[in-house]
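Quick log. Single chain, no ligands specified.
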Amino acid sequence: MRNKLQELKSNLGFRKYFFNTSWLFAEQSLRILSGLFVGVWVARYLGPEQFGVFSYAIAFTAIFAGIAKLGLDEIMVRELINTPEKRDAFLGTAFWLKILGGFFVMGLIASIVPFTSNDATTNLFIFIIAAGLVFQSFEVVEFYFQSQVLAKINSIAKIIQLALSSVFKIYFVLTEAELICFVLVTVFDALSLALSFFIAYQLRKNPSFYIHFDFRVAKQLIKDSWPLIFSSVLIMMYMRIDQIMIKELLGEYEVGIYAAAVRLSEAFYFIPMFISASLFPAILNAKNQSEELYKQRFLRLYTFMVRIAVAIALLMTLFSDWLILLLFGRAYQEAGQVLIIQIWGGIFVFLGVASGKWFIAENRQILSLFRTFYGMLMNVVLNFFLIPEYGLQGAAFATLASQFMAAYFFDLLNKETRLMFFMKTKSLISFGSIFKKG
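-> predicted structure:
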């Protein structure tokens, strides 16, 4: 064991990716702590009904946020790794495409909200939150640092944004501010993060990327990313449609209860995201070396994801009611049973995020779109039947079932992804074998 540790410590590649992952983990750990203390404090202060309105406005906007991103996130990382000499052209082109996407989404939302049952105040909250989407254009800087395995810089920028956001939220709670103040913080979050990314990029004396725009690059990016645009919209639909439907079928108070459980269950979703993002360059390098090494790394990634997700689900199942009472108070007591169901969907979320890297590496974005549509459709149908009959627990089960179908069962239905299904199955079985050995 000692020799193995010494070997890993002397491995420059291991040290590089371990250091990169450590920064991501540190930043996300602070974000979880902020969510548990500041975010929960805000929820307790607002109460289920106002928190329900706030959560609904965020969920409604999130469904369209994927359009503003244009599916460029992972495409950009791939291109910056494969063609570093075109850095400025890719960054500048993606920057302006994302700005156009943000304004397009604002116009799209403006044309849709008149057909909803929302009151004028709720629609105002939606527009304010949507305005922050324009500032997502500076995410291109994050993609560059990801491609260089420089998570430290990204993490520092996000920690600065998190600290400023937390200070404002605490101040608003202490001064008993109106709900609109917390809504405005969401726009400030996007603006402060954009400024942090921009300053970090300039401090490294990189040339200005925003003066570049290449129509050929734009055409290439849109050609590769358009399935991911629809896929990201569909992902947010089947992750947030339950809150939209709960508001329409049950009411805003119930949205607040459900959103409290979602806040805890999704608090762990950063784990597969930061692990997959940090290891994606290594996976691409393995693909260029040998197919066998490429498959081995995916299998190890799936196995690791399953073990973490099941451990989290077991702990949260045991302490769900206690955690809800401790963090949110008795007003949110019903969220405990919802959390027990939701948390097990994390196993398939972890696997889904990891396998999403396979679709990018293989340039099979269209398959990613199909599997997401498959999960979203099931979620909508199940919510339609289960919410009126079983309430919030029905919505939680609908989400769990749709995550199972999209992130796991879909792979069995397509011959191109069937290998992924068997690898995921092997990772699930390997976890079960731990108990047998015990």
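The chain has one domain: 12-437.
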